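Supplementary Note 3. Input sequence used for the single-chain structure prediction.
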Amino acid sequence: MAKKDKHKKKMKKSTKIVLISITAVLVFVLVFGSVGLYKLYSDTLGGIKKDTISKDEVNKSIDQDVKDKYDDSIINIALLGVDRRANDTGRSDATMFVTIDKKHNKLKLTSIMRDSYVSIDGHGMDKLNHAFAFGKGELSIKTMNQNFGLNIKDYVVVDFGELANIIDAIGGVDINVKQSEFTETNKYIQDVAGELHKTASSLSAPGMQHLNGIQAVGYCRIRYNDNDFARTDRQRDVLVAMFNKMKSTSPTELPGVIKKISPYLETTIGATDLLSLGTGVLKSGIGNIQQQIFPIEGLDNCKGGLIKGTFYFTYDKDALKKRIQNYIFEDAAAK
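The predicted structure, written as discrete structure tokens, is reproduced below.
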């Protein structure tokens, strides 16, 4: 049991905060799409690297029944986190997708566990994040579509090794640091500062305070003083703080923020389409991000365990596929 728990908790520090950094990127794309300074923002997006994939191959990976049953009112875009600080771009440290649901007027951010045991085209059964190692973003999209019944056609890759810089670019975040989190937060603040070869100020007391990038990353990395649920709550606290900060940024300040964040991105989506997506979402009045993680332990026979010495999350493939499709396309409860 102890060995199983150890594998369940094993996760790179950067992975534990990738949800936040990816969401920050998503938010700025959606927010600036609402303003009329099209030429200004279009120029600012020039720092984002444009990737090219085979649209025909990706389209083939989408189930025909998905094409027949669901239209473009529900758009799914893959979000892949890569930590380039470690010079390890061979695998995605996290695999997520954002759902722009114009049918039910919702915005969803869904994470799929990177240790999920999936079928990867041409490579047999393996971990989900290995798809990126075998075929970069294109194979990641195909693997998600084929295993989970999705209709993903594009992706965004984020260099979340620079999360502290991203948070600093938006001006920091306001977080309520609890007494039980205070000591560990300061410990991790100094750890992050050391990794970045910078100095950082520790927090003087618990409570509501404004955190800079290094401090916020330290807060997100707390691991041992409570449980998985509390760690998830902290990630969500920072995510919501970043979301609110981006929404409150004035149109005149946004170009500068976007310019700072853009070098950490690459995507298959053109600037025009990004702007169009942002405009459409904001016109619909969607204001909050709904979050979910799959597979869900305890449901669909999901469990973590070793297969030939390697840890995976296994599950009932058909049951999980149906659950994800119902949640994404029908807006049903995840559990």
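The longest strand covers residues 74-82. The chain is about 45% helix and 20% strand.
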